Structure prediction request, 299 residues.
Amino acid sequence: MNPALRAVETESDIEAFLDVRARVDPEYPITRANFDDGRGHVDRIDCLALLGDEVVGAAWAHLPHSSAASEFMFVSVRVVPERRRRGAGTALFSHVSEHARALGRSRLYTVTRHEDADTLDYLGKRAFVELTRMEDLALELATAPPAEGPPAGIEIVPFAPEHAQGMHDVAKEANPDIPSPDPIEAGTFEAWSSRELGPRVHRELSFVALDHGQVVGWATLGEDKPGSAQNFMTGVARRARGRGVARALKLAQIRAAREAGLERIRTQNDVANVAMRRVNERLGYRLQLAWIHLGGPLL
Prediction:
């Protein structure tokens, strides 16, 4: 039986898409809010793979949001383990490859867990190579360090809309410094604010660092699984680095998250980002798993 593909259009399609994701990555399912946020990009496609009447796979594809010059199309293909090796994965990868060609992209960029031997073997046979890997970390708030004062001359304040322009200015410095196989750009203020201050951000758990009233750093927390929040971004202006600003921002988030009744905070670090890895390790974040980022040719 050959797999059939169907675009995600109806509520039942969305439920089936999210179900596949939850069955493949039960610890890290895509939430409905996450799905809706992604669907806001005009270049994104979402697709289901079926064997007969059974939905066995799901995929999305979109252009990188932070790099207009990228050669990549970002894609995610998942097939439930008990229905693999029946052509569903190849059908989905071929479909997202056609989308990439139509938009002038020459390579695919995808991510999988380090212990997913099936997917890594499949991609390796199709000339995909590891580009980098991200560590997925968690901090249990019950054992997190207590609050402490900010660095000398730095004020840590809750996020407010009037800080957004200054945060964007910091992002124009901080984003290109993030280790990445694909360039990371802040983009226009409008694009940046839509991406970094969207509806999934917990604004009441996000903070800004000020030096004489000027924004020199910021950190946002956002939606995750129940009882948990995720570090979306921490950025510090180059002139303010090495002073403990990132640690102070994260400690403010820890305090606020604990007071809000959350149990843990998750974050991801590129293995090459030694400075941020050190900050998180000293705060008590512990490794959960690694995500392998791979690049490869279109199918």
Observations:
- DSSP finds eight helices and twelve strands in the chain.
- The CA atoms of residues 130 and 294 lie 4 Å apart.
